[in-house]
From TrEMBL:
Gene this chain is encoded by: purK
Coiled-coil region: none
Catalytic activity: 5-amino-1-(5-phospho-beta-D-ribosyl)imidazole + hydrogencarbonate + ATP = 5-carboxyamino-1-(5-phospho-D-ribosyl)imidazole + ADP + phosphate + 2 H(+)
Subunit-level organization: Homodimer.
EC number per UniProt: 6.3.4.18
Role played: Catalyzes the ATP-dependent conversion of 5-aminoimidazole ribonucleotide (AIR) and HCO(3)(-) to N5-carboxyaminoimidazole ribonucleotide (N5-CAIR). Catalyzes the ATP-dependent conversion of 5-aminoimidazole ribonucleotide (AIR) and HCO(3)- to N5-carboxyaminoimidazole ribonucleotide (N5-CAIR).
InterPro entries: ATP-grasp, ATP-grasp_carboxylate-amine, ATP_grasp_subdomain_1, PreATP-grasp_dom_sf, PurK, PurK_C, PurT/PurK_preATP-grasp, Rudment_hybrid_motif
PROSITE patterns per UniProt: ATP_GRASP (PS50975)
Residues annotated to bind ATP: 100, 140, 145-151, 175-178, 183, 206, 259-260
Pathway the protein acts in: Purine metabolism; IMP biosynthesis via de novo pathway; 5-amino-1-(5-phospho-D-ribosyl)imidazole-4-carboxylate from 5-amino-1-(5-phospho-D-ribosyl)imidazole (N5-CAIR route): step 1/2
Protein name, as recorded: N5-carboxyaminoimidazole ribonucleotide synthase
Amino acid sequence: GSVIGILGGGQLGRMLAVAAGRLGLRCHVYEPGSNPPAADMAHALTTAGYEDEAALCAFARSVDVVTYEFENVPASALDLIESLVPIRPGREALRISQDRMTEKDFLTGLGLRVAPYAAVDDLAGLEAALNQTGAPAILKTRRFGYDGKGQVRIKDIAEADQAIADMGGSPSVLEGFVDFSAEISVIAARSADGAVACFDPGQNEHSDGILRRTTVPAALPASLRTDAVLLAGRILNALEYVGILGVELFVTPAGLIVNEIAPRVHNSGHWTQNGCVVDQFEQHVRAVAGWPLGDGQRHADVVMENLIGDDMDRVPELAAQANAALHLYGKAETRDGRKMGHVNFVTPLG
Ligand code: ATP
Ligand code: MG
Ligand code: MG
């Protein structure tokens, strides 16, 4: 059987390793941090930094294909790995999604709509950008942002000074504030031979920039459901993508606007674990290992809730509840804002 290398040992890597194990595949996890959640589920673990060339080479030589659970792997590490073994999804998807500005240019180039945006490097740049996007707006770091970190909301131009100070000199992008009626996401898959399958779009609720809840089915007219799936397919084909891609969308009266894409399994796709015969993790492993895609039809209505920080206090109650599927990540330390697990509330269809 083949061995899958996974860059990153967080909860996404852990759930990928579980899915791979079910298919009889082995996983080798590469993670610089200590006590990674994926370690228990992996057949091999390398704890080394992304600058450790010897460790990267040994890792790449021990696997048949490399995938990743987060998009910020340094390019130098990827160059080295790619000289020894294929990386799926490919480098182009990573290059584009590592930088919000590049990503928006790419999406716009495909004819998809994004919020009005402009690059910002300093105060003068921000003032010019605000003229372009209007206020309110959101200033985001181009790289390394997640869970709403590295973002500042700007109500009007008087807040520009403070916003630049808050960003601490990081190259940024300013986005006009989108007045959306809902947020949805499409978890889309493409196999090595180019077949595409999308999970049913989920409706997402965030607070403080962190995903709290995903509900399927989304409250969405059929025409927008079709738009969402078609635009995801367009992105997959343009990138000759192999694996799962998460596409976050704003629903507006004028149609769908792309917020961002993630070249990996996605938090808003966790409902698939209890709503589909083949979930997003298995679908990703299948694609990456060169298998055909599986059956991702939805067989239940699902509400997924993230368990963040103190939400772990709910676990004893949830463990006793009917139709509640718990997924805990085995993290030793509970911290504010840290994703500790999730629960899927499941209502089987008819
Ligand atoms: P993650 O990668 O964890 O999804 P992130 O740090 O990349 O998060 P974004 O997805 O850019 O953050 O933003 C987080 C949330 O903030 C969005 O889901 C949305 O609720 C809100 N938001 C972001 N950009 C805009 C915008 N231009 N207009 C309105 N709301 C926005
Ligand atoms: Mg993001
Ligand atoms: Mg997001």
